[in-house]
Write a structure and sequence with these properties.
Distance between the termini: 97 Å
Helix content: 55-70%
Number of helices: 20
Shape: globular
Largest sheet: 4 strands, mixed
Strand content: under 5%
Radius of gyration: 28 Å
Strand order of the largest sheet: 3-2-1-4
Order of helices and strands: HHHEEEEHHHHHHHHHHHHHHHHH
Length: 471
Amino acid sequence: MSDTGHAHHFLSRLDRLSVPHLDLALSLYRDDALLRHILSTSRVPEGAERVAVSLADPVKGPFLVVTRDGKFVTCLGEGMSAKNLHVVTRERLDAVIGRVTRLRERSERAIAAQDNAREFMSALYDRGPWFTREQFQAVAAMQPFLATHLLRWIIEDFMDVQTMRQRLLREVPKSGKLHRRFDELLHVFWCRSWTLGHLSVLAAMDGRAPYEHLPEAARDPFLRLSFSWLSVSQSLVGNALRGLWSAARFGKELLPVYKKDNDKADTLLQTVDAVFTLAVMGCRHARLRAEIRKALSPNDLPPEAPRFVAAIRTLALQVLDAEDKHGPTSVLHQHGREGATRAVAFAKRLPPTSPYHFKEIEDVPPEIAYRVLLLDGTDFVNHREAIVPMTYALQWLSHATADDLYLPADYIAAVRTPYDPSHVLAILRDDRKIEKSALAEAAKAQQTGPARSAPCPCGSGKKYKRCCGEG
């Protein structure tokens, strides 16, 4: 039958469909590109010349019957059999239509924003924690065209940030200011640390879909990557939350990586990264929850494990328990209350005429309260009290969209504070203390004889370094 014949036959059978199904059938009929995309992503078996697209039930129908290249053949009303045809389920149909709709909307925004692309990309690298929702949406509009580049950029930027960190750690004085020749490097380091979180969200916002077409050789290294570590390792609260969200978006593919990281984690930073990522993943993906709950059990820890490992695992398990309750929980309530308290604190420096001059926590709308923690630049490794608010955020984070991770421009403009180099210096000084302590512990563990200042074991009464250990 010719294409015209197929179309005429199809249109003549539309009376088999109810009104809601008729609207969907006609929308697919008018959108050849959408239908071809649905078929190309539905793994139609080789040799299958016709496909049944279910408009409701995958067994009872109704169905649209199309050729594998997207030509319409006929309609099968509810109860008519699609026997021997490969079926594209309604669930699959809705998912693909939703994704294509979002991509088209982003493409339209990308075209509208193309004259300002340089400005938005500069903001991504220069705004630090103050990257706005509108700026994020403008860059996200270009994400479908940048997806495969984003993974490379984030790894390259991570290496750059690590290099800057090591350079600054060598130059930071014990007290006082850094020499002014390093002012620009310090500022770039601070902004780029936050960029890692923004890039993580952009790279992960569509989950696995943008990377499914990559050859296996290119996908394998990614599937062994602790994706959240690129952001969490900067130890900044807001940045870490974006990294946790991003890794959880990939779900099952990264689960083996994080279970392995969880088993070997023995520093606070490693533990927060692995345990909290698993918690967000478990809240987001119900099918993985039982496996993740078992992995997070504190009962199987070795005796030498630091005490904070069991404590953080216990907090994460409480979050998973809250998710099982299906509805508003004390964890979500506490997260909202924590954010509202911060928003009221921000409001104290705003004029009374500001729409964000909140006097009571009850005045703060949820769209502000749930997101304020993402502005927090506290170093949670050296200020461990920040870990509890992070825990409260995990359940909300698991259900958040990419846009939810950013606050609107007018709110950012109201609460934004100037860049404070002394805050960044304090973080670096704390980092250096941790690094020196770790080196000292490693040296102590390798030491075979008595400490150099300890009494000499020969009984002379002298210090070991002045006696048998001399030279």
